[in-house]
Amino acid sequence: MGTGRRLVLIRHAQAERETAVDKERRLDEQGREEASRAGRWLAGSGITPDLARVSGARRTRETWEAPRRPARLRGSEGCTVLVGSPQRVVGYRTGQPAG
């Protein structure tokens, strides 16, 4: 692989439909399998992230745990949630505003 950078975005896996507090929704059975599959893909891809930003939502933290373990990754949990176009997300990561 060259010296370029690669941005990998993984959305949270399938979560429970009904809970009193949205942030506390857990992965359902399908979501646990999806997260595990994402973990296997990441572990086999040869990509080792320098940084993982994981929101505070339970379903997102549970999704991150699946790739983190087999790939032996370290990450940080925070409240960074990026919403917008790919250009906006890349701009956030690189410090360059979307034009």
Q: What are the salient characteristics of this protein?
A:
single chain, 99 residues, mainly alpha, Rossmann fold, two-stranded parallel sheet, 3 helices
Structural class: mainly alpha
Order of helices and strands: HEHEH
Our count of domains comes out at 1
- State the distance separating the first and last CA atoms: 28 Å
Largest sheet: 2 strands, parallel
CATH-level-4 superfamily name: Phosphoglycerate mutase-like
What is the number of E strands? 2
Low-confidence stretches: none
Mean pLDDT value: 74
Describe the structure.
The protein is mostly helical. The protein is 40% helix and 4% strand. The chain has helices spanning 29-45, 58-71, 86-94; strands at residues 53-54, 76-77. The chain has a two-stranded parallel ribbon with strand order 1-2. Helix 2 links the parallel strand 1 (53-54) and strand 2 (76-77). The mean pLDDT is 74.
